[in-house]
Amino acid sequence: MPYLWLKSHKDYSNQPLRTEGFRVLLEIYKTFDEKATVKTIKQKLMNMRTNYNKELAKVNASQQTGAGTDKMSEPCRITPESIEDEEGSNSSDEDIPSQPIGSIASTSRGHSVEKKKKHFYKNKKELLNLLK
């Protein structure tokens, strides 16, 4: 469903297709947030696009400054594009480096970042298959 976020996609301006795509994404996302709406999904996509562009600007700025490769900025956010790139690289959950849960700071709800990361990677391929 890159036509939902990729402006250069040929179906980006196809409103009926985009509406159906948002509906499908909403059904999937409701497993995480029962109160989600299409507006929520659109906001999430806009946030991902904004974060992607910010990270891209950081990388481009670090390349233009002439900094050595050890000082170059690297993207730190997960984006639809990075997920698609990773999908092609037959990576599995075993390839994900992990740290002991006790060594990672907990969030305000008491859930560890590591647990959320593992949950994301566990469901990543399943979600991508549903989106295509």
Give the overall shape: globular
> Uncertain regions: pLDDT < 50 for 5+ in a row?
89-110
The percent of residues in helical segments reads 40-55%
- First-residue to last-residue Cα separation: 6 Å
Integer-rounded radius of gyration: 17 Å
Number of domains: 2
Number of strands: 0
**Largest sheet, described in full?**
none
Order of helices and strands: HHHH
Q: β content, as a range? A: under 5%
Mean pLDDT across the residues is 71
The total of helices stands at: 4
SS-based structural class?
mainly alpha
Set down the secondary structure blueprint:
Elements: H1 15-29, H2 38-64, H3 80-88, H4 113-131
Pfam family, one: MADF_DNA_bdg
Domain MADF: 2-63
InterPro entries: MADF-dom (IPR006578)
Any descriptors?
single chain, 132 residues, mainly alpha, 2 domains, 4 helices, 53% helix, MADF-dom, MADF domain-containing protein
Overall description:
- The protein is mostly helical.
- It folds into two domains: 2-89, no CATH class; 95-132, no CATH class.
- It is 53% helix and 0% strand.
- α1 crosses α2 (38-64).
- The longest helix is centred in the middle third of the chain and has 27 residues, at 38-64.
- The chain is globular, with a radius of gyration of 17 Å.
